[in-house]
Design brief:
Elements: E1 2-7, H1 16-30, E2 34-39, H2 53-56, H3 68-77, E3 80-86, H4 94-102, E4 112-113, E5 119-120, E6 130-137, H5 146-158, E7 162-170, H6 172-177, H7 183-199, H8 204-210, H9 217-234
Parallel strand pairs: 1-2, 1-3, 3-6, 6-7
Antiparallel strand pairs: 4-5
Helix pairs in contact: 1-7
Length: 239
């Protein structure tokens, strides 16, 4: 199995998103997968200009030359796409959305009805056949993931791919202040990654267990109070 993993966190490897992804990728490698990861915060990728050159003049090739040129070849040869993004304003990060928009260049200008009986574009080149989401949210409620998960699944469907699972752990503000709370989940995530590599899927029961809130709302607020105190101090406030 070949895997492309995109970390869409603006904080790159300093964020909780990467901690989760790193554990998953370690498990994938342990299971024999070949993994290539990209840190989008370190890359120069422009937004899609909707020029349609990729559809009408240079089929399958974006007109823009930037760091997407590093990503396209790996996308085309991979079997699994791991999308890593924190929840930003109820969706994926701008960095990740920009990449998915730039993958429109793989679509043809023609129209067809897909297996779900929806009108869609056919493709001049194929995205990885399987999509997997890794995400975290600053807030502690699981409901915060619902819009992102719906968007992620829709993106997979738009590209004719299968969404095969999500890892979504809430409360990252508290987890940054008390990182030891995350350690047991990282071990579980690594197990899930190994399953993905060996079997092409992870046990849904394991994914469900991984994605349970680590702290209650009350515990979250108690731990996050340390962050609030730091934030006040950084602003020169005493209360």
């Amino acid at each position: 199995m070949r895997v492309i993993a995109l970390n869409g966190s603006a904080r790159g490897k300093k964020g909780v998103t990467w901690k989760l992804m790193d554990s998953l990728l370690k498990g994938l490698v342990e299971g024999g997968a070949i993994v290539k990861d990209f840190q989008l915060n370190e890359m120069n990728i422009s937004y899609c200009r909707a020029c349609l050159t990729c559809m009408h003049k240079t089929p399958g090739q974006c007109a823009q030359r930037d760091d997407m040129d590093q990503i396209y070849p790996v996308l085309k040869e991979s079997d699994l796409f791991v999308m890593g993004t924190p929840v930003y304003t109820d969706s994926m990060s701008a960095q990740m959305k920009t990449v998915t928009d730039r993958c429109i260049c793989g679509m043809e200008p023609f129209l067809r009805v897909d297996s779900a009986n929806r009108v869609r574009h056919p493709y001049s080149w194929a995205m990885p056949s399987k999509f997997f989401l890794v995400s975290t949210s600053g807030f502690p409620e699981m409901e915060n993931f619902q819009p992102l998960i719906m968007t992620f699944r829709a993106q997979a469907s738009n590209f004719g791919c299968e969404s095969i699972g999500e890892i979504s752990i809430p409360g990252s503000i508290a987890l940054q202040m008390a990182p030891q709370l995350l350690e047991p989940r990282l071990e579980m995530i690594q197990r899930a990654g190994k399953m993905l590599a060996l079997h092409g899927k992870a046990d849904p029961t394991l994914l469900e267990e991984i994605s349970k809130p680590i702290v209650s709302v009350t515990q979250y607020l108690e731990i996050a109070a340390k962050y609030e105190a730091w934030a006040r101090k950084s602003r020169g406030q005493t209360t």
